[in-house]
Amino acid sequence: MKNFKQLYLLTIKNILIKHKYISNLSEFKKLVELYKTKKRVAKSQFKELTIDNSLSKSDIKDIIQSLNKSNNFQISNSNINKLTSRINQIYTYYALLEYDNWTKCFITMPEKRTKKKPSTGSFIHEFQLKVSKHSLKKYNIKFNAAKELYNAILGELLKRYKLMLSDIRYQNAIEIYKQDNLKTEAKTIFDKLNIEYQITKNDLQKLAKDIKNKCYMKDHLDSVSIQKLSDRIFDTYTKWIYKKGGKPRFKSWKNGIRSMEGKSNTCLAFKNNIFSWNGIKSEIILQKNDKYGVQEHALNSKVKYCRIVRKIIKGKQKFYLQLILEGLPKLKSNQIFDNGRNGIDIGVSTIASVGKEKALLTPFCQELNDIEKNIKNIQRKKARSLRLNNPDNYENDSLVIKDKRFLKRKGKNIKGKTIWIKSNNYLKLENELKELQRLQASKRKYLHNVLANKVLENGNDIIIEKNNYKAWQKGLYGKIIGKKAPSFFVQTLKRKALKSGGTFEEVNTWSTKFSQYCHVCDGYHKKSLSQRIHTCGENEIMQRDLYSGVLIYHYDLEKKKVNRESIIENWSGIETFLRQALLTLIKSRNEGNISECLIPKGVEKRDWLVKGSLSA
User: Fold this and answer.
1) Entry pTM
2) pLDDT digits (tens, 9 = 90+) for 323-364
3) CATH class in words for 341-367+437-615
4) In whole angstroms, what separates CA 98 from the centre of its chain?
5) How far is CA 426 from the centre of its chain?
6) pLDDT tens per residue across span 106-140
7) Nearest to residue 83, comparing CAs of 44, 54, 110?
8) What DSSP element (H or E) covers 523?
9) 106 neighbors 86 (Cβ within 8 angstroms)
10) Where in the chain is the domain with CATH 3.30.420?
11) Which strands form 303-313's sheet, in the order they lie side by side?
């Protein structure tokens, strides 16, 4: 920032020297008088006067570039362009206005004007596109060109990053960053090196533009979509650098780019139910039965920008248009959300929700188990097919003694570069697997939405434990977390709660210990995962997940502890609707809708549950 101000002041001094000659001219004095009545005419004539006297916008840019090189300020070209435009605007304004003491006002660097955009909410509505054979071919060409451009930009970015890694200044900056007192100095060094090695968002946008204009891509891609594509690469790169994500990968020829989007409703435009992109036009397919008026609400809302998505459904390519719209989505008339607190305890296989007068205990996305079985069967078929067609790529089978018996263990695949022969049957299985995984993702999303609506019936002021789902995935529940996606469900629940006018609060699990706390003795009891009933001594109190939901509901956010007095005072009323929620789950277990491991047999014969059912 200091270099930027110094460069500004030096350019102003050079401009003022030249302006002294212009201010004495009779033409300039006439323009000052003309500016009072006709501003546009005076500005256009003043531009011609500055061109003749070497004070035009291009001349100011040359002055700035020469001063930047001579003083070694190391300011990027994008910032130089911004500075020239600012100086040119201020110079024309103050010169023609002949402001009192304007030279002093001009020398002091004006503060950068920040345009505050009104923060408006946004929502997405998706339509399927009616695509002809010609437009399908054109869309595929565009997506393939975007894939090649993505890989070219990413390759160049990684090359520049390798060069920066080999720089001694970068290595010294890493050592400085480890010290707490010198982190700001290290960050300034990192910023300078990023500018020097052209690893900034503006540099990548310029690189994308240069690559596009030098090849066939200029006929298929627009300038706005490639800017968004380069920004996507830069965002993945920054996540990788700051250890918030994995290393950015190149797009393969199989998958490629799945979506392209714009910045506004211009290049990728939607108007009068028609989507257009560089001359290609496609109509949207409207739903015939818009029961709740969601489609009508989306079509009447203002379009911020458009996104086109390519999906493969049953082996065929289909294109969808996602409209990012201004405002809030319409709530369906069948969605009835209750106002009030809602304590939620989410687990791997169950979810418990406790409101003021209602409770819910239900399995978490259990309907996905059938699809998971089919996926496992196809994966095993694929493995057998590969082993039969490529025996040389595997080690020899071996015999292993286990429980005084000889077992045949199949050999592992040989490491290194190998050639794989894939049969037609294998390719069919691969397509079936992709389709099943797509169905699993869409069904999971549907189940998350249905479950979130059920939970919000108990209350829209959500209080939930802040769990580390990545740690769950690395630990005991790797496949289950990948299948059920509890983190995505929490995001869905948060979005729906805030949309309905509620709140969303996350509570730290390490400090609260809801699974161990007991309100009866005001102590903590450690329990194994197999123990599903909360007990205090020899007395059984309540099912574990529902009891945690009660503790979360009565958690005081200001004092950061459970309000034990309110639980003791209202326990008789709480116990009745908790037992009712548990009995409904037992009923669905007896019907065969849920597995017995969630609610084991014999629970319904417990004294505390039988008494509760009779009293209820």
Assistant:
1) 0.74
2) 999 988 888 888 778 888 899 988 888 888 988 888 888 888
3) alpha beta
4) 51
5) 34
6) 555 445 555 555 678 889 999 999 999 999 999 99
7) 110
8) strand 523-524
9) no
10) 341-367+437-615
11) 259-261, 303-313, 316-326, 122-130, 280-285, 274-277, 268-271
